[in-house]
């Protein structure tokens, strides 16, 4: 499965910051129950790699990837844990040899036209616009489409229930990502039904968009 196929499979990607393996299992179950099938587990917490390992084992129907990949060692560890794709807020040069060696589907972060063109030239036609709302959001994506029609984006950063459908309606957006699907307050409250409802609502909106 290539990166674009993974984005289209979403087309809503929860960006998850997990505090424990148990939490990861509970949140992922809740999101699966709401219809989400593709997950980005960020490597921002000590529990992340164990979480990926357990999620891959527990939910074979889910596509589990990692986010916030910043160097080759993290990429290797994530692949060992069973991650099926990788995401980064950017495209650090130090990652390129490891990406070439592993050929894992990879979604690099970009924020400007030059970064988008450089990532495209490095072989990545599917890219994360990050942080989407802060760098220009919907107007920026509309402006990028005319000169760069062969680049497809997964905007992330500031996406939520009220603006996700507007992004998904753009011709150069295949997926939207964000933390709004599993907000910290619902996770801390153990409100799994609430998370399922957010996921179902996001998918319903994506079908209308
Ligand atoms: O760190 C940011 C996350 O990757 C996604 O951003 P968000 O919390 O605005 O959805
Ligand atoms: C921003 C994002 O999705 C990441 O940390 O990879």
The total beta strand count reads 9
What is the CA-CA span between the terminal residues?
24 Å
Structural class: alpha/beta
Query: CATH topology, anyone?
Result: TIM Barrel
- Overall pLDDT level: 96
* Structural domain count: 1
The largest sheet, given as strand count, sense and whether it forms a barrel, is: 4 strands, parallel
The tally of helices reads: 11
Question: What does this entry look like structurally?
Answer:
By secondary structure, the chain is of the alpha/beta class. The protein has one domain (3-208): TIM Barrel (Alpha-Beta Barrel). 47% of the residues lie in helices and 14% in strands. The protein has helices spanning 3-9, 21-33, 48-58, 72-81, 96-102, 113-121, 132-135, 137-145, 164-168, 184-189, 192-208; strands spanning 12-16, 38-42, 63-67, 86-87, 106-107, 109-110, 126-129, 152-153, 176-178. A 4-stranded parallel sheet has the order 3-2-1-9, with helices on both faces. A 3-stranded parallel sheet has the order 6-7-8, with helices on both faces. Helix 2 links the parallel strand 1 and strand 2 (38-42). Helix 2 (21-33) packs across helix 3 and helix 2 crosses helix 11. The longest helix is centred in the C-terminal third of the chain and has 17 residues, at 192-208. The radius of gyration is 16 Å and the shape is globular. Bound molecules: glyceraldehyde-3-phosphate and pyruvic acid. Glyceraldehyde-3-phosphate binds next to loops. Homotrimer.
């Amino acid at each position: 499965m290539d990166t674009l196929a993974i984005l289209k499979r979403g087309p809503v990607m929860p960006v998850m910051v997990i505090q424990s393996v148990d939490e990861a299992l509970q949140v992922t179950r809740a999101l699966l129950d709401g219809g989400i099938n593709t997950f980005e587990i960020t490597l921002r917490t000590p529990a992340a790699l164990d979480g990926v390992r357990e999620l891959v084992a527990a939910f074979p129907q889910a596509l589990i990837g990692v986010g916030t990949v910043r160097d080759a060692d993290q990429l290797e560890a994530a692949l060992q844990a069973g991650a099926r794709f990788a995401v980064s807020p950017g495209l650090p040069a130090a990652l390129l040899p490891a990406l070439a060696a592993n050929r894992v589907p990879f979604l690099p972060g970009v924020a400007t036209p030059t970064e988008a063109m450089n990532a495209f030239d490095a072989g990545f036609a599917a890219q994360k616009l990050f942080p989407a709302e802060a760098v220009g959001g919907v107007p920026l994506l509309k402006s990028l489409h005319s000169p760069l029609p062969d680049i497809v984006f997964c905007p992330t950063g500031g996406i939520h229930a009220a603006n996700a459908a507007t992004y998904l309606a753009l011709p150069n957006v295949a997926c939207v990502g964000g933390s709004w699907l599993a907000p910290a307050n619902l996770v801390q409250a153990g409100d799994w039904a609430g998370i399922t409802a957010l996921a179902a609502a996001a998918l319903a909106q994506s079908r209308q968009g």
